[in-house]
Structure formats: C-alpha cells, structure tokens
Amino acid sequence: xxxxxxxxxxxxxxxxxxxxxxxxxxxxxxxxxxxxxxxxxxxxxxxxxxxxxxxxxxxxxxxxxxxxxxxxxxxxxxxxxxxxxxxxxxxxxxxxxxxxxxxxxxxxxxxxxxxxxxxxxxxxxxxxxxxxxxxxxxxxxxxxxxxxxxxxxxxxxxxxxxxxxxxxxxxxxxxxxxxxxxxxxxxxxxxxxxxxxxxxxxxxxxxxxxxxxxxxxxxxxxxxxxxxxxxxxxxxxxxxxxxxxxxxxxxxxxxxxxxxxxxxxxxxxxxxxxxxxxxxxxxxxxxxxxxxxxxxxxxxxxxxxxxxxxxxxxxxxxxxxxxxxxxxxxxxxxxxxxxxxxxxxxxxxxxxxxxxxxxxxxxxxxxxxxxxxxxxxxxxxxxxxxxxxxxxxxxxxxxxxxxxxxxxxxxxxxxxxxxxxxxxxxxxxxxxxxxxxxxxxxxxxxxxxxxxxxxxxxxxxxxxxxxxxxxxxxxxxxxxxxxxxxxxxxxxxxxxxxxxxxxxxxxxxxxxxxxxxxxxxxxxxxxxxxxxxxxxxxxxxxxxxxxxxxx
Length: 551
Ligand code: SF4
Fold this sequence. Notes:
Layout: H1 2-5, H2 10-14, H3 22-37, E1 40-45, H4 51-66, E2 70-74, H5 77-94, E3 101-103, H6 113-119, H7 127-143, H8 162-165, H9 184-194, E4 197-201, H10 202-211, E5 225-228, H11 234-241, E6 244-247, H12 248-259, H13 266-288, E7 298-301, E8 308-311, E9 314-317, H14 319-342, H15 346-367, E10 373-380, E11 383-390, H16 394-402, E12 407-412, H17 422-428, E13 435-440, H18 446-449, H19 466-481, E14 485-488, H20 492-503, E15 510-512, H21 518-527, E16 532-535
Parallel strand pairs: 1-12, 1-13, 2-4, 2-5, 3-4, 5-12, 14-16, 15-16
Antiparallel strand pairs: 6-11, 7-10, 8-9, 10-11
Helix pairs in contact: 3-4, 4-5, 10-11, 12-13, 12-15, 13-14, 14-15, 19-20
Iron/sulfur cluster is lined by residues 112-115, 167, 172-173, 177, 179-180, 183, 185.
C-alpha cells in the first residue's frame, strides 16, 4: 500500500493535490488484510480520510490477485457516478495492473428500446414540452452507450412519461423481446459479467440479495466480496427490501397495463376496461380510508386493529378491512381474466405475475400476522405506500450475506457509538470472531474548520410557519457565506418550499434538485460562482465539491 499511498507513491506522483494521510494508508492496509484473512471489517473513517481510494485500491488488488469479482455498493447514485467518472478512471491510469470496472443501477434508470418503439404509436405524452423531450430521448437512445438517464443531464428529473418507457422488470419481455440483443439491460449485464469491480448502490444490492435463490434469479453477477460505502444506511435499506410494499402507483400501473394488453377481441377488451374501472374505484375507496396524518406527508403506524377487530367475541372486518376484501376480490378477477391469455402473450404472463405478487403483498400487510414485522403507511406527494418491514434484519443478513461471503467491508463516517462497534455488529448480525474493526481518524480539525449553528426558537418542522422561519435563517446564513452552499431538506415538499421562499430574496444563483439530472445539477453547481443548491437526501452524503464552491 505504501507504493500507492506513500509520500512518494503512485497517487502522489499523478495527483497534484494529493496529501499523505496516515488514516488513509492504515485503512487501506486493514481492507487488504480483511481480504487476505477472509474476514469482515467495519471501518469508521471520518470525513477527509480519503476512504474511497482506501477501499478501492485494496479491492482492485484483491480482485486481480484472487481472480474474483468484488462489488462496491454506495449509498447513492451520485456517489456511484462519482466513483465511475472520477476515481475508477484515475486508478485505471495509475495502477500497475490493468483492471475492468462496470456500474449497474436499478432497471428503472435505463431506457427500454422496446417501449420507446411502442410509444411512438401509443399516446403517452401530455403537451408540447413532453413531445420535445420524447423526441430528444428517442434520438439519444439510438446513440447512447448505456441508456442510463443520468446521461440526459439537462432534462428534468420528473418526466411524467419516463415510467412508461423505462426498462423496469414488470414490463420487460425478457428473451422474447425483439430488442433483447441491443437492450441496455442486456448490455449492462454483459459489461458487469466481464468486470473485476462492479459498482452498484445499496438499493440494487439488497433488491438482488432478496431475489437470489427465488425463481426470478439474480440481477448482479456472482461475486466473492462486497464493500459497502455509507454503510450506516444498510440496515434500513435491507429492511425495506426484505419487507413488503404496495403503493397507489403500483395498482394504477396494473390497471393501466391491463388496458394496454394487445388483445384484439373487442368483447374481452370491453370486459377488461370495465374491470379496470371497478378496480380504480375500489382502490380509491381503500386508500381514502387511511386517515393517518390526513393531508400530511410522512410515515404513520398501522394500528393492529386497522383491518379487523373483535365485536362481541367475534373477529369482524373494519370498514377498511371490507374495502381491502373488495379490492382484493376485484384484483383476483383481473388475475383470472388475464391468465387466460398468459400462455400466448408474454405481456399477459408478466402482468399475471405482478397482480399475483401485489395480492400476496397486500395480504401480508393487511393481515399483520407476522409479529417480527412493523406495519405502516407512508404518504409522499400524491402517493401512498403500505409497508411491512422486519424489525430485526440481523438473522436475514447473517444467513444471506455474512455467512455466504468471505469478506464484507463496511465503511462510513458514522458507525461506532462511544468508540465501539457492538451496536452495529448486533444490529447487522456480525459474528465477533470473524469481524475486525477500525477507527480511522479524520484529517480535519473540526474545532477550527467547522461550525454548527442551531437557531434558537425554531418551531416543530410540521408547524405551518416552519418554512417561513427556516427561510429567514437560511437567507442570513447565505449572506454570511456569500452563497456557496447546499440547502438540504428531508422532503421534496420542504425543498421546493424553501427554494421558492429563498431564491426570490437572495442575489445568488439558486439551483433546485429535479430541474435537471443529479450529475447535471452538480456540474452546474461546481461551475457557477456563489451558487446555492436546494436538494434532498441524494446530496446529503458522498458528494464531492472541491475548492471554494461549497465552503
Ligand atoms: S428486453 Fe426488456 S428492457 Fe430490454 S428492450 Fe426488451 S422489453 Fe425493454
């Protein structure tokens, strides 16, 4: 590692701003040792340690030495892109041995060539703006090497029709697709199959881990070890993927896709349209019965007697329970009606599978029978999500991950409590005898280089006046820092509200997440003097802005 990270090492030779950092070289040695000794490792690496290179270099050495693929899993897509665009090409230039790397994101990030072709003849667009965007996407998809929408840097993130032309698995025809060969997903998998290092994000990693072993198989190619960056996030993300979820969007899509099946028989089509309308009505009655947090975004617990309760010694459905039974029986009719066509029609086959899965998930959440799960409803904008998540993921992670792999490295700036790692080991199901730990010190002097400012007398974040008061505080701070700041929120609605309130009252260029791709907006921020960026969780961690721009 000295040869790479040392004062006269390869990085110092090729990187003009490189500073020798004791914590970085110690971390790199610990990661290499974990690979050699086939152990798991937890490293808390404070901000400024240079942890990305400290895990990438030993990972590459181990992948080449042991001829095994290693997965790097990041907390956000931003960090994934940063690794792929900056750190990996840099190491490919300087490392003594050649290595290959590829990245994989969730399927909905990629364009579906088949659906784009179909969309040309089916009306999916609202308004002229969308037609222009669609035209641009159509041309881009012909040329793009990856089909990853992050390449569309100037396009808004919330394109309403993207959901109808992306490569999500629910609508994929698989090998029966006429565009299977040039398909971006086929090509992405091909690149990953050939790579020594594959960069994914935690969402994709746990979606894949949950699929391994069941009938739909794996997404990520087989690997021998994994490194989690921003590892403090993995418990929650694993719980989401080992859990169950049904959303308003999911049911809307089932209905829409059932109406778009290429069925030519007019009577069957008419019956399906009638059934679809009935499901929309019943779903509406079902969702509107959730009164928790009416009118507010957030997560709200489902009470144990939400769907059924005891009346005079008898268990009887509540009005919500009755709404659920009515919706489920309509979904069952839809499942049966489509199943008739499944043998001859790939679209029908995959739709039946989705309806069945939705009914299963809905039943799991509504029956609330599993005591080890927590049940709740989440409201976000126009969407509602019914969820059940395991309270404790340690056993699942132990079985599916830590017992299966020789080495799992977990790193983040915040993993220990009181200088110890017992809590995280316990929560994740790590065996003490097989897990090493390390605290890599930050190279920042927090006393001199950081300030925490807590405004006095702020109201509760849910109070109606919160955004107004927060905006006034933010404006004062921006005038001190001369812009050059991120304003980070926990929800899109508060981000938008703060952007509206602040951008009108300051003279700094204000950017807001969603107006273009994340990479595009970060690029704009880096090159716009005194810019202010309003964003949410994707920009909370792992974002690299060097120099004065964010200071
Ligand atoms: S294989 Fe699936 S994702 Fe790929 S182009 Fe065909 S339908 Fe779209």
